[in-house]
C-alpha cells in the first residue's frame, strides 16, 4: 500500500504538469499574429456581369421586291459607307428609264418648237399692229378706205389672238417638259433602289438572303452594326453603384478569353434602374479597340470591373475577421502594447477580394489572423513579414 502511494502521486503530478503545460501553451503563451499594414493607392472596383452589344444596329433591305442577282458582302466583313451590298434584277426598270428619257427629250423638242412659234407669232403681231396704226392714221385723212382700215384692225386682233394661243401652248410645253423630267427622276430613283448600299461604315453580322432568292420590300437582307458603337452592357448591384460616373476606367474579361482583360471606360449610365433585379445598367466601351478586336461578338458574356475610386492610403482587413458587421461598423482584434484587444471600428469601401476599409482611428495594430486561440489580454507579437 505504501509503495503504491508514491507512484500515484508521481503520476498525478505528471498529469498536472502536462495539463498545466498544455493550458499555458494554448491559452497563456505569447503567440505570433499577422497584422495589417496601411496600403497605398488602392483601387475600389465595382463588379458587374453583362453582354457585348452594339449601340448602332441596322437591319437593311430593299424598298422594292425583286430577284437577287448579286450579293457583294457576307457576315464578318467590314464595309465602307456607300459600298454595294446586293443588287436586284433591274432590266425592266432600265427600259422604263430609257423610255422616260426619250419622253423628256421629246418634251424638250416640243417646248423649243412652241417657243419658236411664239417668237414668230410675236413678230407677226407687231407687223399687223404697225400696219393697222398707219391705216387708222390714213383713214382720217381720206387716203385709204374705211374698209381697208377695218381689215387692218381685224388683222391685228387676229395676230394678237394667235400670239396668245402660242404663248399658252409654250407654257403647256414647259409643264410637259417638267413632268417628263420628274418622271425620269422617279424612274432613276426606282432604278437606284435595285441596289442596296451600306448607309454607314459598318460590319456585317448577318446575311439572310442568298443569290437568286426573292427579296421582298422592307425585308431585312443584312444586319449591320457600327464597329465604333460596340460596348458592353453590364448590370451592377444598385447597392454598390454609388459613385459611378462617366469616364471612369473599367476592365472587361470575356467568357471566351478569361485570362485576358481589356481596358475600357464608362460611356453611359442608364437613368432608370431595373426594378425587378435592383440593378443599374452601365455601358463601357473599349478605349483602343479596332473593328477586328476580340470585343466584336455580340451577345457574348463579359465580366466588368469598374474602378470607382482610388484610396491614397488606408487600412484594410478581410471581412471574415470582422465580428458583428452591420454594413457600417464591426469589431476587430487589435494588438496594443503586446496584448490582444477587441475594438469597435467604422468601415468604408469594400474591395472585390473581400477586404474592407477601416475609416475610424485604430488603437494599436489591426490583427488579420484566422487563429482560433485569440483571447482578450493575451500576449502576442506581430508575425515576421505580416
UniProtKB/TrEMBL annotation:
It comes from Bradyrhizobium sediminis. One of its GO terms (cellular component) is efflux pump complex. One of its GO terms (molecular function) is efflux transmembrane transporter activity. PANTHER family: BLR2860 PROTEIN, MULTIDRUG RESISTANCE PROTEIN MDTA. Belongs to the membrane fusion protein (MFP) (TC 8.A.1) family. The chain crosses the membrane at residues 7-26. Residues 229-296 form the CusB-like beta-barrel domain. Keywords: Coiled coil, Membrane, Transmembrane, Transmembrane helix. The lineage of its organism: Bacteria, Pseudomonadati, Pseudomonadota, Alphaproteobacteria, Hyphomicrobiales. It comes from the Bacteria. SUPFAM superfamilies: HlyD-like secretion proteins. InterPro entries: Beta-barrel_RND_2, RND_pump_MFP. It holds the Pfam family Beta-barrel_RND_2. Residues 85-124 form a coiled coil. This is Efflux RND transporter periplasmic adaptor subunit.
Amino acid at each position: 500500500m505504501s509503495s503504491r502511494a508514491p507512484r500515484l502521486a508521481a503520476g498525478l503530478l505528471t498529469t498536472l504538469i502536462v495539463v498545466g503545460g498544455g493550458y499555458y501553451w494554448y491559452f497563456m503563451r505569447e503567440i505570433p499574429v499577422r497584422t495589417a499594414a496601411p496600403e497605398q493607392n488602392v483601387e475600389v472596383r465595382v463588379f458587374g456581369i453583362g453582354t457585348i452589344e452594339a449601340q448602332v444596329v441596322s437591319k437593311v433591305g430593299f424598298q422594292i421586291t425583286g430577284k437577287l442577282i448579286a450579293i457583294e458582302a457576307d457576315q464578318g466583313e467590314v464595309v465602307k459607307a456607300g459600298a454595294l451590298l446586293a443588287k436586284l434584277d433591274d432590266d425592266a426598270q432600265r427600259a422604263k428609264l430609257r423610255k422616260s428619257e426619250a419622253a423628256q427629250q421629246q418634251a424638250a423638242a416640243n417646248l423649243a418648237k412652241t417657243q419658236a412659234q411664239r417668237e414668230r407669232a410675236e413678230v407677226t403681231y407687231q407687223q399687223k399692229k404697225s400696219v393697222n396704226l398707219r391705216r387708222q392714221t390714213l383713214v382720217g385723212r381720206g387716203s385709204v378706205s374705211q374698209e381697208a382700215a377695218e381689215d387692218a384692225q381685224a388683222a391685228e386682233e387676229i395676230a394678237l389672238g394667235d400670239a396668245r394661243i402660242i404663248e399658252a401652248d409654250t407654257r403647256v410645253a414647259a409643264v410637259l417638259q417638267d413632268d417628263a423630267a420628274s418622271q425620269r427622276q422617279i424612274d432613276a430613283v426606282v432604278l437606284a433602289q435595285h441596289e442596296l448600299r451600306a448607309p454607314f461604315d459598318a460590319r456585317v453580322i448577318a446575311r439572310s438572303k442568298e443569290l437568286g432568292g426573292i427579296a421582298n420590300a422592307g425585308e431585312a437582307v443584312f444586319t449591320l452594326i457600327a464597329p465604333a458603337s460596340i460596348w458592353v452592357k453590364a448590370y451592377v448591384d444598385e447597392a454598390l453603384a454609388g459613385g459611378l460616373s462617366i469616364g471612369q476606367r473599367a476592365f472587361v474579361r470575356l467568357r471566351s478569353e478569361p485570362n485576358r482583360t481589356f481596358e475600357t471606360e464608362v460611356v453611359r449610365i442608364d437613368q432608370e434602374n431595373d426594378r425587378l433585379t435592383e440593378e443599374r445598367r452601365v455601358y463601357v466601351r473599349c478605349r483602343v479597340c479596332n473593328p477586328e478586336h476580340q470585343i466584336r461578338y455580340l451577345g457574348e458574356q463579359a465580366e466588368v470591373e469598374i474602378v470607382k475610386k482610388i484610396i491614397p492610403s488606408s487600412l484594410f482587413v478581410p471581412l471574415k475577421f470582422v465580428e458583428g458587421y452591420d454594413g457600417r461598423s464591426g469589431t476587430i482584434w487589435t494588438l496594443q502594447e503586446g496584448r490582444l484587444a477587441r475594438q469597435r471600428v467604422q468601415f468604408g469601401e469594400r474591395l472585390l477580394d473581400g477586404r474592407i476599409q477601416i475609416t475610424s482611428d485604430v488603437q494599436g495594430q489591426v490583427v488579420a489572423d484566422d487563429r482560433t486561440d485569440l483571447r482578450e489580454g493575451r500576449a502576442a507579437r506581430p508575425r515576421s513579414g505580416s
